[in-house]
Write a structure and sequence with these properties.
about 325 residues; alpha+beta; Immunoglobulin-like; six-stranded antiparallel sheet; four-stranded antiparallel sheet; 3 helices; about 25% helix; about 30% strand; rod-shaped
């Protein structure tokens, strides 16, 4: 398949055509148009809208015009015999066009039951309306290539948003009525042509969270496929906020537990230190013993005996037991 290019720009009745062959132009309306082609040729098209009657004549660019300053033949050469009619050759197409227009007007009058009488005695023929069967000046090109004007293969779209994607058709002036829009999951999103648009544009409308593929196609060609992922940003944000709050609460709980454990450890350590200190003080307490006695006394005058000073730890090390009367034994 070769590279093709065609572009038309309208300036009222004047149309300029750009193609690989060059630049051409045409002037006229629906019933009559003269076209100057890019190769230098000329085409005259006459038609009667609504009747299907038309006449087309091409004039080649190779035919040279006669000029008044032509070089005379050399002396002695034979002179060309002038035409017997004594004048220029007349073209037939003006008469043919006139005959077509006249036949079309008469046919329209007969079809509509005659002519209309307007005030003042003037007679006006009815105006023929444009029919869908009217002959077009150029053949509508077939679509050979379709593409979605989006440079990524994947698209992420929030459920509250929509996006418009232009459809590019390679052929200029092609009929896009047969282009269809496709989605693999209508429950997730729809893909439909945009209304009130001069160009072919598809609109993606999310329906629910999920993934679907979109494309455009005709019976002969198909565009590339774009994967669309629909997300709910509000739900995601709410879930992230809840997860962050739960993490903060868990961190606070752990911090409280660690603080309580540390406090309990500190209290236990303090209690143990106090007990050790008390035990130390108890072990160093002064007691009274006798050289042969089996008990130690807190009171040095207990039972009027003669005692020796000692410490509680020493007395306990000697195997002495507390006095039942003064040491609580």
């Amino acid at each position: 398949m070769g590279f093709r290019f065609r572009k038309s720009v309208n300036f009222g009745p004047l149309r300029v055509n750009f193609s690989k062959s060059g630049v051409g132009y045409s002037v006229g309306g629906k019933g009559f148009r003269v076209t100057k082609k890019a190769n230098g040729g000329t085409r005259m098209t006459a038609s009667i809208p609504g009747t299907g009657i038309s006449y087309v004549e091409d004039f080649s660019s190779s035919s040279k015009k006669k000029t008044s300053g032509s070089t005379p033949p050399p002396s002695g050469a034979s002179q060309p015999t002038p035409p017997t009619s004594g004048g220029k050759k007349r073209r037939k197409w003006p008469y043919i066009v006139g005959a077509i227009l006249f036949a079309g007007v008469m046919g329209s009058c007969m079809q509509n039951g005659g002519v209309d009488q307007v005030p003042g005695g003037e007679v006006t023929p009815p105006v023929a309306s444009m029919s869908p069967a009217a002959v077009s000046e150029t053949e509508t090109p077939a679509i050979t290539s379709l593409s979605l004007d989006y440079d990524q293969a994947d698209l992420e779209l929030d459920i509250k948003d929509t996006i418009s994607i232009p459809v590019e058709v390679l052929e200029e002036g092609a009929d896009t009525a047969d282009v269809k829009f496709s989605t693999t999951d209508p429950a997730v999103l729809t893909f439909a042509p945009q209304e009130d648009s001069d160009t072919l544009v598809g609109v993606v409308t999310p329906k629910a969270e999920g993934t679907a593929e979109i494309s455009v196609f005709t019976d002969q060609v198909q565009s590339q496929v774009i994967t669309v992922t629909v997300i709910d940003s509000e739900r995601i944000a709410a879930e992230e906020a809840a997860a962050q709050k739960a993490a903060e609460e868990e961190a606070a709980r752990k911090a409280a537990e660690e603080a309580a454990a540390q406090k309990a450890a500190e209290e236990a350590a303090a209690q143990q230190a106090a007990q050790q200190q008390q035990q130390s003080q108890t072990n160093s307490r002064t007691v009274y013993i006798t050289p042969t006695g089996k008990r130690y006394h807190y009171n040095g005058n207990c039972n009027g005996g003669t005692y020796i000073r000692s410490t509680l730890s020493e007395a306990q090390a000697m195997g002495l037991t507390p006095c039942k009367k003064c040491a609580g034994g």
